[in-house]
Structure formats: structure tokens, C-alpha cells
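Tutorial handout. Part one gives the primary structure; part two gives the three-dimensional structure as C-alpha cells.
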Amino acid sequence: MGAVVVASGMLTLALEPNQALDRMSMHLANALLGNPDHTAGLEVLLGGLKLRFVTGSAVAVTGADGAVTLNGAEFPLNTAVRVAPGAVLEFGPALFGLRYYVAVHGGVQEASEVLSAGAAVTFGKPRGQALPAGRQPVVTHPPVTHPARRALDPERPVVARVSRVPKDPQAQNVDAGTWLRLTTEPWTLSQESDRVGARLLGRPLEVGQTAPVAKAQAAHPQPLALGSVVLPPSGLPVIALAGRPATAKSPVIALVRDEDLDLIGQARPGQMVHLLG
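Part two.
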């Protein structure tokens, strides 16, 4: 056993790194502890999580920037820290960004699990080796003593680069005017956004009439890649995130560059989003 969830907050998930909405932050947390890159950790939405450690371990918290405490004292973010048995790690509201990421030495054994109060969090042992008492975790990067990556300022717009999707039969009907509007007009992240997709608010877009052959192809669901910009009947774009379905019937009109998706994953509802073509 590793820890007990005293309070779960709004939503805490045990995830593998490729399931995280901010993959870079999850990778950084694992790297600080010397965990393999695929090691599962926790994604904490907005804060509110309270963990009591039954066994000692080493922990790193990355992603959102907010008040995180260990036994009531400030806990340094983006740093590998040893915690003793009985210690309590508590997450205050995220002030910058939306999601904290928590890695422990050895990782969280259960992935794809929603954690609730009273749940047990079991830690694994990377390469079959426990961390001896008094020994600091092995780090694969130099120790970080200051925030290596500040979370998004909610007062500033998120800027993400997009490219066209030429193979989608309906995307061919996005004319120059629609593409220009997508990539120049400001968008706002909707309160309805979730792990499935980042829903954008603004002036609705339109897709032109579909040619007969393309229309027949488009009648079948199309594979939905991570970062796809889908245009549903409302005309308001949706960016497909880690919890997306495998396919979509609505046209995919653009693709967000992979390296910019983590920014979308940390954006807060009401924050402005610019898509650059």
C-alpha cells in the first residue's frame, strides 16, 4: 500500500502518461523521480485532493501552479521530495493552469481509475527495486529547485498551431474564408469542455457543400486522432483530447500540433484561445 485518499477534490484520476491532458507535465514528474516514462501517476483537476501516506515515498508535483502543502508547509513544485509515513499532501486551488500531476517513486499501480475519498493508492516498484531509507530518488535530469515550467496564466490567451487535414473528405470543403476565420478570430474555451474535447465558443463556422463522392465517404465515421479539430453542426470547433471516441461523423477540419496540445489541456474555461494556421 502507499497512500489513502482523505479527500478526492473535484476529479482525481490515476492515468498513464499518454492518457494525461498535459503529457509534458506527467513526463516531467516521472523524470524527476527516475521513473520509466510510461509510469502511471495522478491527474488532479483544480485541486482539493488530500493524500495521507501510509508508507514513505518520494513525490513530484508538476502542471498547475497553486498552493500545495505537505503537513501544512509549502510543498515545492517541479521538485523530487521525500515524504515520510503519515505525511499529508494537500492540493489547494489551482491558480495557474487547470490540472496538477503527481508522480511517486515506482508509480501508481492502478491506471484509468477515478479516485474517491477512502480509496487506497498503491505504489509500484520500478525495476523491482524499493527506494532504501535515507536515499534520494535516482533522477535522470538535474534536480530542479525552481519551477521548470510555469503553468498557463489564465489572463493570457492560449496560442496553438493548426494544420489542414487534406485526407478528410469534408475538410476539402473548408474554403479560404472559413479557414481564415478559424485561424484569425479569437475563440473562448467553453465551460462544457472535458477530457473528451476542448469546446470553443465564438462565431460559428460553416463548411461548404460536399461533392457527391466525398459526401458518400463522409457518411461513414472517420478515425479521430488526438488534436483533431472537429466541426459539429453547431459550427463551433471542438479539439479532440485524450478521452475522445475512436471515430467522428462530423468533419475534421484541422489538426492541432502535438507539441501544443498540452497547452490546451491546461487551459481554463473562459480563457481565450488562438488557433494559428
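Part three, for discussion. The chain has two domains: 3-128, 158-276. The chain is about 10% helix and 35% strand.
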